[in-house]
């Protein structure tokens, strides 16, 4: 596999996206580190290459295209709008050295508020069409359904916010569920801290960025949390049931309808899933054979908040997805300075697709 082959393949897909109505974009390779840190926190440093510009300050080599495309659109884009782009992205792979840290992406993004589920279907069907000759397996999910399930829990706003913040970190999410439900006992050190009349009285000199008032506020929050009743076993079981949904779309929809009878706050999200299935079918997708996993997409970049999808080579489980995508409405609100617009898109990795082809040769 050569870089020239990957570039040629990227250009071919970009041309197909232009034929579908997308306007080509060229995004800067150096992006504002401040914007990405505001979005993802310090975690992004573990995945990105950071450099210092004497005039512009801290910058990052482009870890993906979606953030700069959203910024551009929210500043001066007309709507509805469709964009395509292709070029290198850069991700540190310290825990997976076998994977490339620099690779090509080619993408297609839709900003359209008229019918979000129709836009979901448009993007998925376009990717399905251009990748049809490759014999890939498609997987779909919906982060919005799990989000709605968490928001419907009978617990404090503080606990709901903590769970929502860690939806994209499955281990941390499970640890919080276990703690909030009482399945995990309070660590002895925390129990001693909460039992002390004045935990700060025996504190040593302050080390780190938090001052005494911030530490007291954190202790008060821990005490409030400890005083809350645990999540009921029934509610924990409902969250577990949502996460276990892994069926073809019609059966997944039926199962989620059953769960939503006990978590009515899920109804709107499940209704959106049903409408998406109708729109996909209208686009010629065999919904009856399309896989849906409620937990799919939880380890991806954190801007996805609704429909998510991926295309994989089943014969090459060692490779990442050939294509991934999803809906990121909340990202447009965060980068839009108060404005927002429903948005959905996806990317193809030509290098992965060429590796799949070489393996099949």
TrEMBL record:
Give start and end of each Class II Histidinyl-tRNA synthetase (HisRS)-like catalytic core domain. Answer: 6-195, 219-348
- Residues recorded as binding L-histidine, renumbered to this chain, are 64-66, 91, 105, 109, 298, 303-304
Under the heading InterPro entries, the entry gives:
aa-tRNA-synth_II/BPL/LPL, HisRS-like_core, HisRS/HisZ
Q: Which GO terms describe its cellular component?
A: cytoplasm
Which domain of life does this protein belong to? Bacteria
Query: A GO BP term, please?
Result: histidyl-tRNA aminoacylation
The keyword Manganese is annotated on this UniProt entry: no
**What start and end residues bound the annotated signal peptide?**
none
What would you give as a GO molecular function for this chain, any one?
A: glycosyltransferase activity
Q: Which UniProt keywords apply?
A: Glycosyltransferase, Transferase
Coiled-coil residues: none
Q: Which Pfam families match?
A: tRNA-synt_His
Keyword Glycosyltransferase assigned to the entry: answer is yes
Classification via PANTHER family: HISTIDINE--TRNA LIGASE, MITOCHONDRIAL-RELATED, HISTIDYL-TRNA SYNTHETASE
Name of the protein this chain belongs to: ATP phosphoribosyltransferase
Give the source species.
Answer: Roseivivax isoporae LMG 25204
């Amino acid at each position: 596999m050569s870089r020239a082959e990957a570039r040629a393949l990227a250009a071919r897909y970009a041309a197909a996206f232009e034929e579908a109505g997308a306007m080509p974009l060229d995004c800067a390779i150096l992006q504002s580190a401040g914007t990405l840190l505001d979005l993802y926190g310090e975690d992004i440093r573990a995945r990105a290459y950071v450099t210092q510009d004497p005039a512009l300050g801290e910058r990052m080599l482009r870890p993906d295209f979606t953030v700069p495309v959203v910024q551009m659109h929210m500043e001066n884009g007309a709507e509805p709008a469709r964009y395509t782009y292709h070029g290198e992205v850069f991700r540190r792979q310290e825990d997976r050295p076998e994977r490339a840290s620099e690779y090509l992406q080619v993408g297609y993004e839709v900003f359209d508020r008229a019918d979000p589920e129709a836009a979901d279907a448009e993007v998925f069907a376009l990717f399905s069409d251009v990748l049809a000759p490759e014999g890939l397996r498609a997987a779909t999910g919906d982060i919005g359904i799990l989000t709605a399930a968490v928001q419907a829990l009978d617990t404090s706003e503080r606990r709901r916010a903590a769970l929502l913040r860690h939806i994209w970190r499955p281990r941390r999410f499970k640890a919080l569920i276990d703690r909030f439900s009482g399945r995990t006992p309070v660590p002895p050190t925390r129990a001693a801290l909460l039992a002390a009349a004045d935990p700060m009285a025996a504190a040593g000199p302050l080390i780190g960025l938090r001052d005494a008032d911030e530490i007291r506020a954190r202790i008060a929050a821990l005490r409030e949390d400890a005083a809350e009743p645990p999540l009921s076993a029934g509610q924990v079981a409902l969250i577990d049931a949502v996460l276990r949904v892994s069926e073809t779309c019609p059966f997944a929809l039926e199962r989620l309808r059953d769960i939503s009878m006990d978590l009515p706050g899920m109804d709107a999200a499940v209704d959106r899933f049903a409408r998406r299935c109708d729109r996909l079918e209208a686009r010629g997708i065999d919904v009856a054979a399309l896989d849906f996993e409620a937990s799919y997409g939880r380890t991806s970049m954190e801007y996805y908040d609704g429909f998510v999808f991926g295309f994989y080579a089943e014969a090459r489980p060692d490779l990442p997805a050939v294509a991934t995508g999803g809906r990121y409405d909340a990202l447009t609100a965060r980068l839009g300075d108060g404005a927002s617009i429903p948005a959905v898109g996806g990317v193809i990795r030509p290098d992965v697709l060429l590796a799949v082809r070489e393996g099949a040769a």
